[in-house]
Specification:
With 134 residues, the protein is mainly alpha-helical. The chain is 62% helix and 7% strand. It is built from six helices and three strands. The protein has helices at residues 6-17, 29-36, 40-52, 71-92, 98-116, 122-130, and strands at 26-27, 56-59, 63-66. Strand 2 (56-59) and strand 3 form a beta hairpin. Helix 1 (6-17) packs across helix 3 (40-52). The chain is elongated, with a radius of gyration of 19 Å. The model has no long low-confidence stretch (mean pLDDT 85).
């Protein structure tokens, strides 16, 4: 991917991953082209890359859409993530300090607080994970 389209790709990817662009949303080359002030050729390259990343789905004679979530796949991913994270925690417990454990607890408390908040955005949830002072 060339440097000139990388910002467009990253912006659209972030909007899809954080569900600012909801699953099933139609993406039009013309709209993306106008939004970023570029011709349709680089937009096609960006959309192709997002399709390769399985973030977009192209339906012949219908259009390009944000890929819908696969709930079965999410269940598998959550299971694998839990298994990997549990194993990582077991392996690092001998090398962490009490201060690091407290920082981890603070991060988890911030995430819980964010989950309980109304109108929680994906960005706010992510910020709660990375920012202890949140």
């Amino acid at each position: 991917m060339t440097k000139d389209i990388a910002p467009i790709y990253e912006t659209l990817k972030r909007e899809i991953v954080t569900i600012q662009l909801k699953p099933g949303t139609r993406i039009r080359e013309e709209s993306v082209s106008e939004r970023f002030g570029v011709s349709r050729t680089p937009v096609r390259d960006v959309l192709k890359k997002l399709e390769e990343d399985k973030l977009l789905t192209v339906v012949p004679k219908s259009g390009t859409f944000v890929t819908k979530l696969d709930l079965n796949g999410l269940t598998d991913i959550m299971y694998l993530r839990a298994a990997v994270e549990t194993r990582v925690m077991i392996e690092i417990m001998d090398s962490v300090t009490s201060e690091q454990i407290q920082e981890f607890r603070d991060l988890l408390a911030n995430q819980l607080k964010s989950l309980e908040a109304k109108d929680l955005s994906a960005e706010e949830f992510a910020a709660a994970f990375y920012d202890v002072d949140n």
